[in-house]
Structure formats: structure tokens, C-alpha cells
Write a structure and sequence with these properties.
Length: 132
């Protein structure tokens, strides 16, 4: 079994990928799935995040919240986005899952995915959300 296949079977890593196709569109949806999905989203400023700790709130299952996303290391602004948390086991993957709805186009979505990776996620392999 390859390293990639092993990660699909039972790793505790958190994965990230765009859920919408690349290209022109008003919105881009980015999914985080895995044990640290909520922590990674919080590192980007979702749920109040570490950047503005005075306004940190607990995420509520299937409740859309507005968030000013920032890079977890530089705190550079990424996007004004909508964040929806989904708690395990009531998700497509059975794991904690967060959807980040950002403005469309490549630049913003790619920047948010890169920020998720910087916060500890890894890029999902093709079909990995479904396999999980």
C-alpha cells in the first residue's frame, strides 16, 4: 500500500480542497475535513479565531457565520467569507467538516487553500472526501 493509500484508510490528518470547479464564478467553496478542521478554520479567523480573541465564539452545527479570513502566520487579509461548521458524525465524511464560502475566481480560493495548508491541513487527493 502506498503512502497516499495509507492516508486514505485511517489517518488523523485534516484535508482541504476546493469543492467548486476552478474558473469564473461568484463563489468558491473550500472544504476542510478531519480531526483538526475546526482548529484550522479558527486559525484563519473563523468563529472569531485567534486573531480577535475577544470575539471568539463556539461554532454551531450547520450555522453559517460571516468571517474575515486572515493568513494564520502573517495575519494578512484573505477574504470576507461565510463559514459553516458541521460536526461529526453528521457530515459527508463522518469527520468534523468546515465549508468556507469565499469570493469566486482563482486567486482568493487558492490563497485560502494555501492558508489552510499553512495552518496544518494537507491537500486532499482526488476523491478523498468521498473515500473517507
Amino acid at each position: 500500500m502506498t503512502r497516499s493509500a495509507t492516508m486514505l484508510v485511517g489517518g488523523d490528518d485534516t484535508i482541504v480542497a476546493r469543492a467548486t470547479p476552478e474558473g469564473r464564478g461568484a463563489l468558491a467553496v473550500i472544504r476542510l475535513s478531519g480531526a483538526h478542521a475546526m482548529d484550522i478554520a479558527r486559525a484563519l479567523g473563523a468563529f472569531g479565531g485567534a486573531v480577535v480573541t475577544a470575539t471568539t465564539t463556539a461554532p454551531v452545527h450547520r450555522t453559517v457565520m460571516r468571517a474575515a479570513l486572515r493568513h494564520p502566520r502573517t495575519h494578512a487579509p484573505l477574504d470576507d467569507a461565510l463559514v459553516t461548521p458541521f460536526f461529526a458524525p453528521h457530515t459527508f465524511t463522518g469527520e468534523p467538516l468546515v465549508e468556507l464560502s469565499t469570493h469566486g475566481g482563482r486567486i482568493v480560493a487558492d490563497s485560502v487553500v494555501a492558508a489552510c495548508v499553512a495552518a496544518g491541513a494537507r491537500l486532499a487527493l482526488p476523491g478523498e472526501f468521498t473515500r473517507r
